User: Fold this.
Amino acid sequence: MKRLVVLTGAGMSAESGISTFRDSGGLWDNYNVEDVATPEGWARDPQLVTEFYNTRRRELQHVEPCLGHKLLAKLEQHFDVRIITQNVDNLHERAGSSKVTHLHGELMKVTSSRDPNNPHFIETLPPSRCDVRMGDLAKDGSQLRPFIVWFGEAVPNIETAAELSAQADIYLIIGTSLNVYPAAGLVHYVPQDTPIYLIDPKPVKWNSLRPFTHIMKGASEGMEEFTALMLGRK
Assistant:
């Protein structure tokens, strides 16, 4: 079974109604990144950061995976599908994808503010109790913080993602500008003889000599075309 490695970004979840940070009208219009997505912001005002992510979790309960998410999950019937996502939502999992690597953390998880990447301190919040309060403690006694990789923090799963990219028989990129590092650098690990497909409705300035097939559609429409292409060629 061929291995299909998929790198997804904000454009994937946008079709489900999740606000993106970078587009006009996105979350950055209402918050400064320095305040809610950096270790320094957490140190200054953990209450603000906690409430910001509480709101994001509540919003997540009211959205559903889009057709693009669902089509990716269905491709597991035909390929060994490995998803690498820059998104912190759980929509890939809710759509049925079974092998998902999160680069930037997971919104429905919380962890120790002292040792955030220690697996012993990472907890998954149930949808019915997804708010965190000041005074809620991790198992090491520190305040619970979001299990999110903030700007300025290391990306623990980047090596795993690089290894997966190097093992790809087919590589698919959906809804990401390829401007955000280190994720954008993953394409350099893809074997030279592996075809690369990119689904994005906008022109993408990808500074690479590597040829790729650009499907200029949104995530769901693009996945319909990609699925037909793959199953026709398989």
